[in-house]
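Batch 3, record 17
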Amino acid sequence: MTRMWTAALLLASSSAWAQPSIALPQLGFVEDSARALRPAYGLAGNFILGPPIAGKIITEAFCGSFGLLKTDSSLSAFDAAGKLLATMDVAPGPALFAFSPDTIAALAYIASSNTLLEWRGHGFAPLSLNYIVTSETVLAIAFPTAAEALLIVQRNGSIWELNLPLGAIGAVSQNALSGVRAPLLALPLGDLVYRDTEGIAIRRTDRSEVHLAAPLPGSFSLQQMNQEWVQLTDLTSNARFAIRTTPGREGFYQLPEITPALPRSGLLRQ
Amino acid sequence: MIPRVLLFASLLPLCALAQLRVFVLNGSNLTPVGSSLAVGPAAVGDIVETQFRVQNMGSTEVPLAVSLSGDGAFDIQCAPAPDVPPGLESAFCVDFKPTALGFYSATLSVNAITILLTGNAPAAAAVTLSGSTTPLLYGATISFGSVVIHQTQSQTLILSNSNSSNLTVNSVSVSGAGFSGPIGQSFPVQIGPGQSASFQVLFAPQSGTPYQGTLTVDNRAFTLTGQGLDPPLPSASIVFASTVGASAQQNSVTIPLASASEISGNGTLTMSFQPSIAGVTDDAAIQFLSGPLRKATVAVSIGATSATIGGQSSMAFQTGTTAGAITFTLTLDNNEPQQTTLVIPLSPVGLDTATAIRQFSALDVAFAGFDNTYSASQLAFTFYDLTGKELPQGVIDVDATAVFQQYFSTTEAGGAFQMLATFPVTGNTSEIGFVTAQITNSAGVTTAQQIPIGN
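Prediction for the assembled complex:
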């Protein structure tokens, strides 16, 4: 009886319903072949890239609410509208990014200086990385909890997951990631996207896998373009692809190489 | 003193004589002419023309007098200029046109230079192209027209004897790249009075260039000409990976050829879009995914059985989110353009995502999808509790015609949209389990069943 009464209160005043708001769907941000950051609009299979809002990008990623980008000498954060949130000078070279599951915080790992930086919504803060990367190659990072970071490294042909405590307490633990090949990307909720023998594989946290047949380029990188989208960048051509990771809606698409001129908006600026 | 003056005076004509030299022009070569020159032979009725050049080697202008004496088989056809300036030359020509069998001669005078011209008119077979009744004159051109490379064109020639006694054609030869023969007759061949013999000459060009050769029948030469033509590209077709036209699709196109191409070629493949929605002019998302938006280069290489598009074996494209017709036009070298159209039919709203989020005092229901008719209007929402029982409010209808029309009138991205509908709630939102939503456009109704309400 109580439940029925509660339900009766729902939506009691039909005149209060707001008219729905309608807008162009945004699929996140991508890096184009000119190394410029562009917003991506549209739907799966119907992509439209907006005008460039930042250039000379080495690495970028977007989690749905904010993004990070690395140029040769700086690390920046930007919001969903492409507005610059903060920037700082960092060591040159590429970076690896990871977002927290709640997409509020993020980590940036800069290989050339073996440094780890944390984004907490207002600025970047350096974290002590209690681990020295020597003969390994760091392929990806993850940020599963506020207290730990994961470094996924390639060591002697095998891929390992190193769990690094971010505080002063705790020891580094490591697990072998069997059956996983580089390039790979760890998504905020724990899914892993990596190269498969005939395309792309998505390994879920329950260890189930989805395989997407795709004509992959010989050399590519993976970057997060939104919560459920990953950009695949051909490192030897202008081709760019998008991988949808939505459970049950997984797909592999090609992004437009050149885009029509949409109205310029959302310039990356403070 | 007087004898020396006389001697000087007598040398003047000799100087003038030595100033002039006579040459005969063979093709582009000048050959000095001596005291005699044999012309021909020529068959009765033939005209053998000889080109002369008179060069003034001195430093003063020389008046020029050219004359011909002898039988009427020789004739000056193109007269020389009256004077030859120093260092220059004057041209004239003499035709040899025998009217009967036999030997002919004449004396050609160029100022004080005399040249004995001789010509022979032996019994000779008339050379006629098959299908013609007019014998070919000496030097006549036999054209093979335009022939596609690696193909062969033949000409049949008839040798006929209109004399009263046998005659023998001793040799027939064909020279020049691309030409061959004779075929169908061995030589020498004897031809009786009123009889004839035939043979073929073949033309098989190896490149798309002009060709020239020579047919020699005994001592009589005829010019062979032909034009090599590049073969046409094989017929090409426009083939889609999926022939089903639909919005929000990535499709690809290939261009197979009817056969392996014998030549290389280039062209373009263009896309154009004609929306079927009144007032809509285009959809920016309809484009090739590589290279220029709607124009791709097409290339055919020798031996290929399909063309490349933008350097790839296939070209991916997007179909956008507007109903209409996407037309592909293929234009290849020297081929008629051909078109294939992919029709994108009007369809009910396509939903890509549908989510519902529980807020503190409201429910947010969001869709992302497309309306390729630009006519979305009615929304209907039905909420259910956690047991699956419909809430007492029943179906909640929302007329969203105006907001959709406002959106479609300003968007430049086709019919793609995302919609957020917020429902204020005055009770406990955690009691609501899921929602079913319907959206209507001119092509039908789309239902998103049992969208779970998340936090």
